[in-house]
Protein: FAD-binding domain-containing protein
Organism: Effrenium voratum
Amino acid sequence: MLAAHGDHMEQADVVLGCDGVASAVRAALQKQGAQAQQTRYKDRRPIVYRVMAIPTGKEDRTDLNYSARNDNVIVEALPNAEGDLLGVVLFRPTDQRIQGLKSGAEAKKVFQELFPDWPTPLIPDSEWGNFASRKTRELPQFAFAGPELNLGGKCCLLGDAIHSVKPFFGLGLNSGFEDIAVLDQCLEESGDDFAVALPLYSRRRAPQAKCLVLCQRRFDQATDLKFALAFVLPLVLDGVFRKLLPRVFAPGLLALFQDGELSFTEARRRKLRDRVLQALILSVAFLAAGAVSFFLARGVLRGLWRLARRPLHAWLHHELL
């Protein structure tokens, strides 16, 4: 099979398309007749970012994810091989406090107002200047490819080429590693016969890629209220029911995704079952509470009616005599 390499073509027995959201390999598969269409979703609540180098203090741990948030600006920082932190500053495209930065002094002033405790005191003046001059970049859109991820036994797609999600929950890179693991398992099961292994991989991973993207996209809501209903409320319900009946109810959907015991589709089915049980239990509880309230209210009204009637009867009896 021919594969593009720079400005020339290479001959290869098998091509693995791991070339990201705008995959040229995926486009080539479609031209060859594979049903590898990409379904891409417009952002409901666009977020952009700039990177920032954050030195660590003498006593700071470098095995943790650091995070700070203030007024719709978020700083996420992960350790790198050198021990410092690679920071990502997330913000809205319309936020001119960061979009409109023209100097390091302006950047430092904005961060002193938003994040006076961390990471601002750690940042040297040179980095403020670098941050102000860096380009603002967009996060990838939610997208998935399928229903075919291969072209016979000659080519298949992995990673962001088949599923693109926001980097909020650590599932983008991890799901790419899982693609590799599944492909390896398919090769083992087929005796390294690519003609068998790649279609098998496609059948197994295409539904998982779609499920991953659609489930995570539900959390990307346009307003705080919709986000609370789509993410916070289910999280609270799962926490309460999990604590009351841990043998019956599973953790939240993201926890199931991150745990890796179940596939994405299996986790979604499990959580749908939990939602049905939760709805039934809550419905019964509301009906029971309504029935108790009705009978209590009826008893109180009857008691008040009896109390109101007694003076009237006594007055009539006195007047008639």
User: Anything to note?
Assistant: The longest strand covers residues 48-54. The CA atoms of residues 34 and 178 lie 23 Å apart. The domain at 12-43+142-217 is CATH 3.50.50.60 (FAD/NAD(P)-binding domain).
